[in-house]
TrEMBL record:
Highest classification ranks of the organism: Bacteria, Bacillati, Bacillota, Bacilli, Bacillales
One annotated GO molecular function: flavin adenine dinucleotide binding
UniProt pathway: Amino-acid biosynthesis; L-isoleucine biosynthesis; L-isoleucine from 2-oxobutanoate: step 1/4; Amino-acid biosynthesis; L-valine biosynthesis; L-valine from pyruvate: step 1/4
Protein name stated in the entry: Acetolactate synthase
Stated family: Belongs to the TPP enzyme family.
Top-level enzyme category: transferase
The enzyme's E.C. designation: 2.2.1.6
Keywords: Amino-acid biosynthesis, Branched-chain amino acid biosynthesis, FAD, Flavoprotein, Magnesium, Metal-binding, Thiamine pyrophosphate, Transferase
Length: 580
């Protein structure tokens, strides 16, 4: 069957075309089902247990599949695609080592509530449990880090399973769902007819909040003299950024956004106080500690935000709005729990609130803190400072780029100094802190948003964990601008060893790293290097003028630290402010 024009047809046209039952293989059922779910790009790597699936792709010429160079690259790319688009990301890998290479990416998505459908092959059903070649119990291995998983033993279940998987991944608290397909199931033949029915027993996420709890929140807002908003990634995942803006501006309550909430509220707005927590702003951390009403919207009170728990927000009545009831009260005792979808909560809440007149003195104090304690660093004309590099990226792009990062000091500097104007513009591994995430997630983000500038900011450590994906950028001319903040050291580990472990530096030297410009050129990607401000400006402008991918090696100061910093065991207002 020639399906070369399927991409040109709408989902409804495809459904109509395939409405008459037709005998096809499990592999074709998978491909058709993905197309019917609106999937327009799959990231993957073939192997023995998925060869029937890849063989079926041969006749689906317009089925978009991006061949990465490692399974971890595939799942991080699917993750970046999901975060940038709001759709479900999809990746495919073979059994055994192919499947286990996905584990870190699954855990990354699970911790950050990213909707993925992860498809793995397995040995034939007759061989399961025999320690066959390339057999691994991937459903068992990933049980703690998936929202749900399926081992499909009968091909007739495949259409239902795929449809359910997308529904589960992208509803309630979003997350990864794994579908494990034995090789004989992908080869089996059966009559296929699209089925849109959903009946997942025991799965009924609550989206509409209790009205009495909404009324309690309205009353608390009307009484508060020092109210404060803590907004997290749930705002973005719910698509509630416009409703959050309306709520904050109606009430004129100051607001902080967590690491995963960046972009959920405009960074340039006067009510925004920056990021809270371990490397958050002086203003945000002190506002949490001194507020009398803390309204948590779609954040999970993780340890990097709260610091020492028994000293967190000591004067505040705590409100927690979240779609996942398991998060409410898990870490911080809550006075007003509200379970529901953030967007739905705002739709009920916003018509009931008004400006908090009694909080004028609080707002003045917040603005004074913002003026007196901005982020600071000692600039230099001789040595390139990483903070300056991020400021340059922000100024030259007007905060309009999609920024992905790896994990470490550069991640925190990017969060501090890049100012986001739009939602779904900041893509980073928050909960798991996965090195190697930055480059492949940028590839996925660029596939999701081909018309936007995507900047991948990396450290010289993390970039080496998935640098093989430079090949994908070159082969497919994916125009990601790959920035390396190169300080020749594992920067965040060095900072902790300096400040907490009495300068006992242990196994952090990355001086033996490759020449990143030559590495880029070896893959067919333009490489540029800068060691001072003038070179940095010239290189960055050349990168922006280049239509394809570019890698920029910014050689920066080795001893620079991220400040402010809250050390473990401290309350978040006990900040190390640095030399400044």
């Amino acid at each position: 069957m020639n399906e070369q024009n399927t991409e040109l047809l709408s989902i409804e046209q495809l459904r109509k075309k395939w409405m008459s039952p037709e005998v096809i293989s499990g592999s074709e059922i998978l491909l058709r089902s993905l197309l019917l779910e609106g999937v327009d790009c799959v990231f993957g790597y073939p192997g023995g247990a998925v060869l029937y699936i890849y063989d079926a792709m041969y006749n689906y010429k317009e089925f978009k599949h991006l061949l990465t160079r490692h399974e971890q690259g595939a799942i991080h790319a699917a993750d970046g695609y999901a975060r940038a688009s709001g759709k479900v990301g999809v990746c495919i890998a073979t059994s055994g080592p192919g499947a286990t290479n996905l584990v870190t990416g699954i855990a990354t998505a699970y911790m950050d509530s990213v909707p993925l459908v992860v498809i793995t092959g397995n040995v034939a059903t007759t061989l399961i449990g025999t320690d066959a070649f390339q057999e691994a119990d991937i459903t068992g291995i990933t049980l703690p880090i998936t929202k749900h998983s399926y081992l499909v033993r009968d091909v007739k279940d495949l259409p239902r399973v795929i449809h359910e998987a997308f529904h589960i991944a992208n509803t309630g608290r979003k997350g990864p769902v794994l579908i494990d397909i034995p090789k004989d199931v992908s080869a089996a033949m059966i009559k296929f007819k699209p089925d849109d029915s959903i009946n997942v027993r025991g799965y009924n996420p609550r989206t509409v909040p209790n009205k009495l709890q909404i009324d309690k929140l309205v009353q608390a807002i009307s009484e508060a003299k020092r109210p404060y908003i803590l907004a997290g990634g749930g705002v973005i995942y719910s698509g509630a950024h416009e409703e959050l803006f309306e709520f904050a501006t109606r009430t004129e309550i100051p607001i902080t956004t967590t690491l995963l909430g960046l972009g959920g509220f405009p960074s340039g707005h006067e009510l925004w106080t920056g990021m809270p927590g371990m490397h958050g702003t002086y203003t945000s951390n002190n506002a949490i500690q001194q507020c009398d009403l803390l309204i948590n919207i779609g954040a999970r009170f993780d340890d990097r935000v709260t610091g020492k728990l028994n000293g967190f927000a000591p004067h505040a009545k705590i409100v927690h709005i979240d779609i996942d009831p398991a998060e409410i009260g898990k870490n911080v005792a809550v006075d007003i729990p509200i379970v529901g979808d953030v967007k739905t909560v705002f739709e009920m809440l916003n018509p009931l609130v008004k400006r908090t007149e009694q909080a004028d003195e609080w707002r003045k104090l917040i603005q004074q803190w913002k003026s007196d304690y901005p982020f600071r660093y000692t600039d230099s004309d001789e040595v390139l400072k990483p903070q300056w590099v991020i400021e340059m990226l922000n100024e030259t792009t007007n905060g309009e780029a999609i920024v992905t990062t790896d994990v470490g000091q550069h991640q925190m500097w990017a969060a501090q100094y890049y100012k986001f104007n739009h939602t779904r513009s900041w893509i980073t591994s928050g909960g798991l802190g996965t090195m190697g995430y930055g480059l492949p997630s940028a590839i996925g983000a660029q596939m999701a948003q081909p018309d936007r500038l995507v900047i991948s900011i990396n450290g010289d450590g993390g970039i080496q964990m998935c640098s093989q994906e430079l090949a994908i950028c070159a082969i497919n001319n994916i125009p990601v601008k790959i920035v390396i903040i190169n300080n020749q050291v594992l920067g965040m580990v060095r900072q902790w060893q300096e400040l907490i472990y009495n300068n006992r530096y242990s196994h952090i030297d990355l001086a033996g790293s490759p020449d990143f410009v030559k590495l880029a050129e070896a893959y067919g990607v333009k490489g540029l290097r800068a060691t001072n401000k003038e070179e940095a400006r010239i290189a960055w402008q050349e990168a922006l003028a280049t239509p394809g991918p570019v890698l920029l090696d910014f050689v920066v100061s080795k001893t620079e630290n991220v400040y402010p910093m809250v050390t473990q065991g401290s309350t978040i207002d006990q900040m190390l402010m640095g030399d400044e």
